[in-house]
Fold this protein.
Amino acid sequence: MNHDQVPSRRTVLRGTLAVGALAAAPALAQAPAHAATRAAAYRNPLVEQRADPHISRHTDGHYYFTATAPEYDRIILRRSRTLRGLTRADESVIWRRHTTGDMASHIWAPELHHIDGKWYIYFASAPADDVWKIRIWVLENTNANPFKGSWTEKGQLTTAWETFSLDATTFTHRGSRYLAWAQYEPGMDNNTGLFLSRMANPWTLTGPQIRLSTPEYDWECVGFKVNEGPSVIQRNGRVFLSYSASATDFNYCMGLLTADTRSDLMDPASWNKSPTPVFTSNATTKQYGPGHNCFTVAEDGRTDVLVYHARQYKDIVGDPLHDPNRHTRIQRLGWKADGTPDFGIPVADGA
C-alpha cells in the first residue's frame, strides 16, 4: 500500500460502518445517579467550537490555550491567569495556513510548549493539492511572550516514514526529551498507531522510533482503526500516556498506556496497555465522543486537571469532521488508591 494512499477518514468510515463495525462499539456508560450529580470544579464547556485542546500553565502564572479551529485554517492562542478565564480571554491568531503548497490544509491539533527559553508549536497540516497528505510541522518563537515576536517555520518534523502523521506532543523524562505522536506505519492494517522517539532538539528526532500501541481492541477500531492524540502525565512512580481511539463521532474514547518511571521508555516492553477504555461517552451526562485530551494543573498548583473535547449530542449529520461542535472541557482528574488516574465520566454541562 502506497503510504500516501491511506484512505481518508471519511472513506474508511463509510466502508467500516457498511460492514457493521458499530456492533463493536463500547456501550454508552450509564452513570450512577450520584456520579451524574457530583459537583464539578468548573463550568463546561470551557471554550466552544475548539477541538483537540491544549492548555499549559507557564511559570509566568498564565494558562496558555490553543486548539483546532473548525475551519482548519489557523492557529490561535488565548491566555488567562485562571482556567475559567480562558472562556472570555481574547483570542489571537498567531499563524495562518499557506494558500498554496505545504501547510495549506487541515491545520489540526496545535500544542504550545516552552523549551529551553523558546516557544514551540507542534501541529499537523497538509499541502493544498493533497489534503490528506498530513504531516507534523513545527513553529518557533524566541520572544518571552508568545503573543509577540515572530513565529518561524522550522519545517516538517521528519519521522522514519513519509506517511500520514499528526498529534505530536513532547515531554521530558530522566533528563531526555521525547516526542510521542500518531502515524500510519507502512504494511499495517490500521489508520494510525502511537510512536515514541528521543529528540535531538525541539524539531528533530534522534535514534530509533518505537511503536507504543496499535489499534487492537474492538473499542479502538470503530469506524477507524485509530490510536492518536497522545498526552503524558507523570505521577506516583509511573509515566501515564493517554490517547484517543476510533472515529471522531460518539465512538471516540480514550485509552491508557503505563510505564514504570525507572524503566527504559524506549523499550516497548516497558509499556502496559489498558484492555478497556478509560474515558467514554456518557448518556446520563449527555457528553459524546470525549477525547484528544491533555493534562494541566489547577490554580492551587496541586490538583490535576483533565482537558478534552466532547459534543453535547450523539447523532451527527454527515462527516463528523465537518461538525464544528467539539467543545473544550475541563474537570478534575482523580487518582485511585493504587496510584493510577481516575478519569471518571465526562461531567455534564453547567455547574
Notes: Residues 9-18 form the longest helix (10 residues).
